[in-house]
Specification:
Chain lengths: 293, 293
């Protein structure tokens, strides 16, 4: 099997998601916390200008800029494209090995607990996710498969994934979630360490995942303005079953809008602040039990 | 007694506090909702550029710009000073009566429920607050007396006050809080209507208020960077008693910091996102029972 040589922990890919930012600063100040014998760990702040400005991004969403067309631009069109090029040079330098794994730290205003977001079904990541779920039942696993070139940081390597923590507002720290995220990161590093040592890893032989099947936008008028809010009965109910006919929106006039699908789905990213401008009220997913070999 | 002739309802004084913004848009679309026979009601969006940018402000906090020195500037120094001048002309026009009352709608990431924030002890506002508390036990009253020229919108008239709703993240709508805020506004308008009609108003003869006595900042290093988070035992505990020796912060290294005061206080605005940059981890207040004549 291939050894893991370098692991990056990235916080502040979005500048107003403070949990990852302050965890990375802690790891930079106390590197022994993320030191493991068999690999190098690199803590990195994603978007320093957005962090300083306490905003998600300066010009455009950095976490949609990590793709070949950005990397090969002679003149980056904006700050985030420039920064994506810089990060690529750090994580995939010409004169040494690329990082083997990326842990990309995010927070969400949705009630997603401790979510692991996978962009693919890489077997080692599935085993890792199964292991983390066994350690902590708050861990949920969301598979959001992306086409090549979608620009997510985690797509830079096979062992890239996001940790998405919530519910927490943008611009604040929640101490309890901070500590839970920190422990989850240590569990990931310990797993990689045991993997490198070829130890018999503790295994869960099945894993429940939520597989993305699409998005639902807010009802909008002809100017694109939203006309409804997430229904109170759906708010904070991420990963819970939504049945055909269940209320999903409440218009400003007070009318309920019901879910029109014809099967049970599992909404995720319900009422995420940063997704209003992206045309996303929630992701919807299917629950799936997969075997871990 | 003086009649109330004009009432302003302002949302989006801060551009990322969506509850007030969408309530004002609703009132602009359905003006009958805020129509009362004896006075005119004016719904107004505070900071249109910040609302469009989904941010608290463009250059500086608009809700610190409402003072004489800004109003008399020939050349406003930035967008918010320009906008403060515009709003002053709308609310205090030269050729007609000024607005008599301002309801300034805000949200907070602190768990402040439905808070009424008074900048003074104007007797009619205290009676109104007592009335609202009687109707809805979720209503809390915070008195934050301000020196003249502090620049808050509510300081433009004697009957100016803020409604502060939370906990809700910046940039999202919470339907339940939206509806509670809407009902609270109708109760205020109904109260003013009964006042104008000289009706015997329902009265609470006592009112519990929380009077501001200061602020507490985060522990910071020499560069001004925060070194600790709100302690999990204090998070979401706005308006609850804090005793000497109770934990208030948790450092990133995991050490507890205890409250060093020598009497019970009542923290408010605990972990408000917009106050990190202002050097405020929380306001502290004293609880006070006042007689309503």
């Amino acid at each position: 099997m291939n050894q893991i040589h370098r692991v990056a922990i990235v916080g502040g890919n979005h500048g107003n998601e403070l949990t990852g930012i302050y965890l990375v600063k802690k790891f930079q100040q106390y590197p022994h916390l993320i030191h493991r014998a068999s690999f190098e760990t690199l803590p990195l702040l994603g978007n320093p200008q957005a962090i300083a400005a306490r905003t998600r991004y300066i010009d455009t969403d950095l976490n949609r800029c990590f793709n070949e067309s950005t990397f090969t631009e002679q003149q980056p069109a904006n700050y985030e494209e420039f920064r994506a090029q810089e990060i690529q040079k750090i994580l995939q330098p010409k004169d040494q090995e690329f990082v083997d794994a990326i842990i990309d730290l995010h927070t969400t205003t949705a009630n997603m607990g401790l979510s692991i977001i996978l962009g693919n079904r890489q077997p080692l990541l599935l085993k890792l996710a199964a292991d983390l779920s066994a350690i902590n039942p708050l861990v949920k696993v969301y598979i959001h498969e992306q086409p090549k070139g979608s620009g997510f940081l985690r797509s830079l390597c096979d062992l890239g994934f996001a940790i998405e923590i919530g519910a927490v507002p943008q611009g604040i720290l929640n101490a309890e979630l901070f500590q839970q995220t920190e422990q989850l990161i240590y569990a990931v590093l310990d797993y990689f360490e045991e993997y490198n040592q070829g130890k018999n890893l503790p295994k869960n032989h099945t894993l429940t995942v939520y597989k993305s099947i699409g998005i639902v936008d807010y009802p909008r008028n002809e100017n694109g303005e939203i006309q409804a809010m997430i229904h109170p009965q759906l708010q904070f109910r991420d990963y819970e079953p939504l049945h055909p006919g269940d209320p999903i929106f409440l218009t400003f006039a007070g009318e309920e809008i019901l879910y029109q699908g014809n099967s049970i789905v599992y909404p995720i990213f319900i009422n995420e602040a940063a997704y209003y401008e992206k045309g996303i009220a929630m992701h919807i997913s299917q629950k799936e039990l997969i075997e871990i070999s």
